[in-house]
Give the backbone structure.
Amino acid sequence: MPEDVPLPVPHDFSPRLPHKDHLAFVDAIHARKCIRLTFCKEKDEDGQDREVEVKTCIPLDYGPMLYGNATPSRYQFAVKDIGVWGHRIERFSLFPGQIINMEKLDVDFEPAIFGPDQSHWCIYRHWGLYRPNT
C-alpha cells in the first residue's frame, strides 16, 4: 500500500459523519459527472490490512441501503464495465470511513443507463425524463 495515502480511522464509519468530499459527490450527481474514487477495501478473512484502490465511478446516492431501514448510511456508486458480452453496470457501496478521496471529473454519464425506474434516491436530483422523487 502506498505510504503517502492515509487510512481513515475506524470511527469514520458513523452514519452521521459524511465524508469530507461529500459536497463534491453531491455536485457530481447534479452535474452528471463521474468521480475518481480512492478507497480502502474491507479487510480480508485473515484480518490483513486493507488494500487501496482507485476507480472512475458514477456517483449514485448517499443514505441507507434499504428503503426506510435504519442501516448505516453508505455512498453508492456504479461502474460501467465494457466486457465481451457488452455493457454491464456494477453497483457497490462504501461506508464514509472506507473512502480516502472523491474528486469530480470532467467526464459525463447518462442517467438513462439506469433505466426509467430510478425512484427512492435519498439525494434529490433533476435528471430530466429520468428524474426521481416526482
Remarks:
- The longest strand covers residues 52-63.
- The chain has one domain: 10-130.
